[in-house]
Write a structure and sequence with these properties.
Blueprint: E1 3-11, E2 26-27, E3 30-31, H1 32-43, E4 46-52, H2 56-64, H3 84-95, E5 102-106, H4 115-127, E6 133-139, E7 148-150, E8 156-158, E9 175-185, H5 186-191, E10 199-203, H6 215-227
Parallel strand pairs: 1-4, 1-5, 6-10
Antiparallel strand pairs: 2-3, 5-9, 6-9, 7-8
Helix pairs in contact: 1-4
Length: about 230
């Protein structure tokens, strides 16, 4: 059953640099944007799936996948430096959503996302404080306290030498953004200036996370999509 107060907004600009036009690129025969729209629909929680884009080809892909593209994102919000907050705010204003509407920013490259995570994170939003974001997060696979730097000659150094003799099992676990979705009320999207200043983490398994920014990332995501038959 869909939630009458839940809207997905996918910020899909056309100007990606490291993987040119990656949101339109087929992965296992299906454009990345279409795959993610399908996952949003599979969650069963959205009354509306919106794509915010400046790109006519992405708009065509979105509409063919039965998402809506009710406005064109302006060039001023489509450059390399515009953050997701500004893009989602613009979409909310264009849609004239009420402040209580549950809005999920779903990243177009979240092709390995589990639709059930979208649904359960919405429950967390509904049960919690309307003044908090709910963000998909996952753990680092190795203690980041043991991070190394590498100079131009290939010499390695511990970034934090103070942890050199601490057992890895004694180092606290650390998390990072899984790059799949962020839930919040429309009111908080419009007012909040910093997602991480008031965020609840929705834990996603590491094996299900693929941040698609490089060709190596793409290959990893494609293998995962193939393996779990998404």
């Amino acid at each position: 059953m869909t939630d009458a107060g839940a809207v997905a907004i996918l910020p899909a600009r056309g100007g990606s640099k490291r993987i040119p036009h990656k949101n339109a690129r087929p992965m296992e025969g299906i454009p990345v944007l279409e795959r993610t729209i399908d996952l949003c629909k599979a969650s069963g929680v959205f009354s509306d799936v919106i794509v915010s884009t400046d790109d006519p080809e992405l708009a065509r892909i979105a509409e063919a996948a039965q998402a809506r593209v009710p406005f064109t994102r302006p060039d001023s919000l489509s450059d390399d430096h515009t953050g997701v907050l500004a893009v989602i705010r613009h979409a909310i204003q264009e849609l004239a959503l009420s402040p209580a509407t549950a809005v999920a920013c779903v990243y177009p490259t979240a092709v390995t996302m589990d639709p059930e995570d979208l649904a359960s994170a919405l429950k967390t939003l509904r049960a919690g404080d309307a003044e908090e974001f709910v963000v998909s997060v996952t753990t680092y696979p190795y203690p980041i306290q043991r991070a190394l730097s590498r100079d131009a000659e290939g010499r390695m150094r511990l970034v934090d030498p103070g942890t050199a003799f601490t057992r890895t099992q004694d180092l606290p676990e650390r998390w990072h953004d899984a790059g799949q979705f962020i839930w919040a009320t429309a009111g908080l999207w419009l007012e909040g200036d910093d997602v991480w200043a008031r965020a609840l983490g929705h834990a996603v398994p590491r094996w299900r996370v693929a941040d698609v920014d490089t060709e190596e990332d793409w290959e990893q995501a494609e293998r995962l999509v193939r393996a779990i038959k998404l």
